Amino acid sequence: MDQSVAIQETLGKEENCIVVSFEPRMVSKIFIYTHRRMAITADDVSLEDIIPITLDFAVVEGNFLLILNIQSLAKVFDLALSIFPLTFTLSTKVSSHHDVATNILPTQVPKFEWIKKYKKSIKRQEAMKQAIAPLEVLSTKNNQHQKIGLSSLQSISSREERDDLVRSSSHTTSNKAQILAMPQFGLRDNLIRCELLKSEDSYTYLENFRFFLGTYNVNGQTPKESLRPWLSCTPEPPDIYCLGFQELDLSKEAFFFSDTPKELEWMKAVFEALHEEANYALVKLIRLVGIMLIFYVKKEHAEFISDVEAETVGTGIMGRMGNKGAVAIRFRFHNSDICVVNSHLAAHVEEYERRNQDFKDICSRLQFRQLDPTQPPLTILKHNVVLWIGDLNYRISDLDVDKVKDLIAKNDFETLHSYDQLKRQIDVEAVFVGFKEGEIDFQPTYKYDTGSDKWDTSEKCRIPAWCDRILWKGKNIQQEHYKSHMDVRTSDHKPVSSLLVIGVNRVNPDAYKKTFEEIVRNIDKMENECIPSLSLSKREFHFKDVKFMQHHAETLNLFNDGQVPCQFEFIQKPNESTYSKPWLTANPPKGFIAQGASMDVDLEVFVNRSMAPDLNCGKQEIEDILVLHLERGKDYFISVTGNYLPSCYGTSIYSLCHMKEPIQDMPKETLLELSPNDDAATDEKPLDIPKELWMMVDHLFRNAVNQEDIFQQPGLRTEFAEIRDCLDSGMPDSLPGSNHSVAEALLLFLDALPEPVIPFSFYQQCLECSSSIISMLPQFHKNVFNYLAAFLRELLKNSANNRLEVDILATIFASLLLRSTKKQDLAEKKKTQEFFQHFLTQHSS
To answer: Which domain of life is it from (predicted)?
Structure first.
């Protein structure tokens, strides 16, 4: 959290906040700026001071002392300070100073002659503003149309710098109720905040703002035409633009290394096409591989934007790959919390259940950090307004291509829409419960021949579909238009736009003050009357048959039966760093309950790969005690127990090779005794490879060598659960589920191994590309490696059908077979891919 927040709380209406900013390439000096609230444009920023970095340079922040070694300054400047990161426009302004500053060599004693120029400028603020290179402004022919931020796009060239921008927060003092959420405030202030929120209607009023939402799958193309027909289609300029792109870059480089030059190209195209009758500032950009979301706001509204956060979640293979997934931006506009999501869901007509699962995964996994770090993250649906755009990929079912085209030719979109998968899934409340979508009176937006308005004439001849959609959830929202834009022909999709008029809560300062004072008076009367107390619905919870990667939940109801409001929190026990074991979560872990009110707390149990090994062998049990603490009150103790069903997932290769029976049929004592150091674990000859691994590979070899997109398209979670249960409890003739689900189950099996196929101790040698190292592996590990490599080579022989490529397989499997105990950098990842790729291109190892 940036330190400017704490300063801003003390500021008056016209006072400024000092922010220290560091630029990685400027390691010889520090620029100190003042800015007014949220600095989005150059007009909001002015240079305050410049501090040279000397040989004995030190920065003191509170009780924190940082000493810089001048000889290390040639390295990346990565300070462990909580500072306000550079925005696009700030970076441009800082760069203009950097160009005229001299470099300091490590062996020289600096004289800092250059600083005199700035010291003079700082004393004369007007002269300083003239010296600073102005932000580049694009103008129309009549010189009246100005937009903020294009030149600044050039200054952000690396993914690392963009990440700092995306992760930052900005806050304004206009949100007085939000300030009370800061962690330094205790029970009294939480009570005030709660009462203020309950009384919000008494000091706020609605004001309408126009939100332009757009979505465009660009099919990996570069901009070839103006986007004005799409982005400037409204008579009046919108107040806010939220624009989502999918398939920004389809190259392997973008997929593997998450970097693409097309980001800047499309940002420039967007910037040039925004409505001419307004000035816009770029607030945030977030991208995951080819999924990008851009957020622009009218310049005059910028000061009312705060709490800006952006996050991503991948829903590709193993729930991680970013070729499918979502990016999202949340922010506070005046007194309303708004979340915008741009998603790209699973493809293919028959995969609607996978799309449903993607939607649910995005809703549960995409979380935003809160201003108060002790509070649980915010999920998408915990906002006043949710705007969802993207290529949702839902298709037309039960109609052939000729019938669909016939209905389109008749403009009978109502009949055609009744066959739309998304409409059907919403009608049965499988997805988007509570969301609304405007009436569709435009023809399907997919699939066209690129550069034309002709339907797909390729061999596959895709059935037209409304893949690109815009939905919303919240109160006081009216849609003014919902349409596609046929004049834009760069892609095989057509862009879609929706103009929403949204009623946003604004604060009436006088009414707020009156409400605040009344609440404080009432609290003063009852503050010290009684000790808080709670009534708990249960004190003991037992989770039956806990399984690997299967979510289990029980509800604990807390009722405030005392005479005063209370604040609770689950606290850590002595000598423990967290309030619970890693497999247990209380949601929420802390909260506030008014007098006579109640709150549900979900106790959730989930075992992942890091917890499974000790639970499988019996070293750990599902057993914990939660301590529920009341501020100014007593503690309550809650017992959590359960029985864990051992799984091949999270069990070592060595142990599995010594099990001829399913793992759930093995006595716990035997599981605990099995270890690589116990050669006498069994008198029977062990298996060459784990039988569970053989079953999955054999299934894929017999059924999936020609499967299109194998190991690239995720399976269904319900099918994974069935596959896991088969492997753990029995040996059926064939595994259940689709080929994609079995393939993902195999990847999850390799990912969950406590010791990877190539043990950790061999990792460094493999980075040196020594292929002979495989012969030195422990026998069971060597067998598994050779078995998997041979299977993958067979898949590559059928690449014409399954569309697999060597580098794709190498990327996916190298990260599973060859893992490090530490976080890998990009260079190491490339080396592991090159190492494993050698075995995929050779016919013998």
So the answer is: Eukaryota
Count of CB atoms situated within 10 Å of the CB of 350:
10
Confidence band for 677, pLDDT divided at 50, 70 and 90 = low
On the question of pLDDT at 99 being above 70, the answer is no
pLDDT digits (tens, 9 = 90+) for 352-376: 999 999 999 999 999 998 877 667 7
Q: Which of 52, 76, 100 is the last residue of a domain?
A: 76
Whether 165 is covered by a domain: the verdict is: no
**Cβ-contact 530, 358 below 8 angstroms:** no
Q: What is the model's pLDDT at position 740?
A: 93
Please give the pLDDT value at position 653: 95
Q: What is the pLDDT of residues 533-578, one digit of tens each?
A: 899 999 999 999 999 999 999 999 999 998 888 899 999 998 899 9
Q: Is residue 504 predicted with pLDDT exceeding 90? A: yes
Nearest to 309 by CA among 370, 360, 373, 267: 370
Number of structural domains the chain divides into = 4
Residue 288, φ and ψ in degrees, nearest 5: -125, 105
| Residue 741 near residue 723 (C-beta atoms within 8 A) | yes
Same domain, 756 and 818: yes
Quick check: is 283 in a domain? yes
pLDDT of residue 831: 87
Domain coverage including residue 703: 689-841
Residue 203 has pLDDT above 60, yes or no: yes
Is the pLDDT reported for residue 170 higher than 60?
Answer: no
CA distance 384 to 400: 41
**Among candidate residues 95, 84, 86, the one with its CA nearest the CA of residue 29:** 95
Residue 736 in tokens: 């259940």
Helices (H) and strands (E) in the chain, counts: 28, 27
Pairwise CA distance, residues 402 & 420, whole Å = 16
Q: Are residues 418 and 476 in the same domain?
A: yes
Q: Where is mean pLDDT largest: 332-336, 529-533, 669-673? A: 332-336
**Range of weakest confidence among 108-122, 236-250, 582-596:** 108-122
Q: Give the ranges where 83-124 is alpha helix by DSSP (H).
A: 88-98, 115-123
CB count in 10 Å sphere of residue 67: 8
Structure tokens at 410: 């008749």
CA 711, 713, 719, 720 dihedral sign is: positive
Query: How many CA atoms lie within 13 Å of 461's alpha carbon, on the beta-carbon side?
Result: 6
pTM above 0.85? no
Among 587, 613, 644, give the residue marking a domain's end: 644
**CATH code of the domain containing 812:** 1.10.555.10
Across 613-639, b (16+ Cβ under 10 Å) vs e yields bebbbbebebebebbbebeebeebebe
Residue 667: CB atoms within 10 Å: 9
**Torsion of Cα atoms, 479 then 480 then 486 then 492, to 10°:** -20
* Residue 46 domain-assigned (yes or no): yes
| Closest among 832, 91, 199 to 508, alpha carbons compared | 199
Residues with Cβ within 8 Å of 758's Cβ and at least 6 positions away in sequence, in order, are: 766, 773, 774, 777, 781, 785, 817, 818
For residues 255 and 317, membership in a common domain is answered with yes
540-546: strand order across its sheet: 540-546, 635-644, 622-630, 566-571, 590-593
818: DSSP letter: S
Give 570's strand partners.
628
β-strand pairing of 540-546 with 635-644? parallel
Please check whether residue 138 is in contact with residue 272, taking contact to mean a CB–CB distance below 8 angstroms. Answer: yes
Q: Kindly state whether residue 342 falls inside one of the protein's structural domains.
A: yes
pLDDT tens per residue, range 457-475: 998 899 999 999 999 999 9
Buried b (16+ CB within 10 A) or exposed e, 423-454: eebbeeebbbeeeebbebebbbbbbbeeeeee
Do 433 and 549 belong together in one domain?
Answer: no
What's the CATH number where 333 sits?
3.60.10.10
Same domain, 448 and 553: no
